[in-house]
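To whoever is on call:

I kicked off a structure prediction for a single chain this morning and the downstream step that reads the tokens threw a length-mismatch warning. I double-checked the sequence; it's 335 residues and nothing unusual in it as far as I can see. Pasting both halves so you can look.
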Amino acid sequence: MRVNAGDMTKWYNLNCSSGMSGVVSFIITGPVTYIGPVIGALTPIVTGNVYTYIISDFATINNQTDFQVILEPFSTAQAGDVICIDAKVTPNSGDNFPANNSYKMCYNVVNSHDPNIKEVYPIDVMNGFNDWLTYTIHFQNTGNAPAFNIKIEDTLDTQLDLSTFQVTDYSHPNTTSLIGHNLSVYFANIQLPDSFSNPKGSMGFIQYRIKPKTNWARPYKIKNTAYIYFDFNSPIITNTTYNSILDISTNLIEQSDNNTALYPNPSTGIFTIDLNTEGKYEIEIYDISENIVLTQTIEENNKNIINANYLAAGVYNIHIKGKNTVINKKLVIVK
């Protein structure tokens, strides 16, 4: 996991942070274990799931490589489990643009998959959402020789506000253009090695963010697919991402809490939901920003043990949804 933090003017071969000090920190939640820093990166101070770097001079920082750690998923992690990183930079003084000093990104646990994929965060949002949708396109040269030039073609959905488009990160220098809804990313002379001779070096990515239009409404889903061209080969088509507005249905009947017990509360993240009603239920846990951090199916007349121990301390909303009912609970996690 890599956090790109520090003096962002270095993107333009400038250095405007000489003598500035401060702190870079991030919180990692999800079913992962910290292994250590990447070779060549700085070593963080680790306190639970909080990783902290004390920076005496941001001018000496390499934004791209200094904040990297190796994480290993739990052996019990399931495909679709969520891993989130909440990063923050706190300069002591002299910051020209403090609005970009925090950033959150979540990823789904995956198993064997096509290395040429597209991700988006967040996926499901609340009605009236007017924040960033962050897309990442990953690519890998799985051929048997270097790829000299790579081009990505990506048609942005009509419900995206093109005026908000921003490139936020990339693995290799590139030229990006957005003409109408057509996004083109060209990695000229990238000479990307093949995955057999250099597995790590054979991978790349580009990440961008964009906001939806204010008139985006259910049931329309924002969809996106990328086409990746390796030299003169036919394009590799990625998966299609979908963004949805959550359906807080008005025809659901809120069920009495007397039928459901949640304990212990507060908890460390491991708790029991005891249902005394018939049917299967889907639980959804939301953090304070209304992001879904856990979903799970539970059974009626059963003591269902939920393991959300990876979540950070805080207050969470729980929706327990049946066929025609919804039960709302609050959960307090303490560490």
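Update from on-call: the warning came from a stale cache, not from the record. Cleared it. Sanity check on the structure: The two ends are 24 Å apart (CA to CA).
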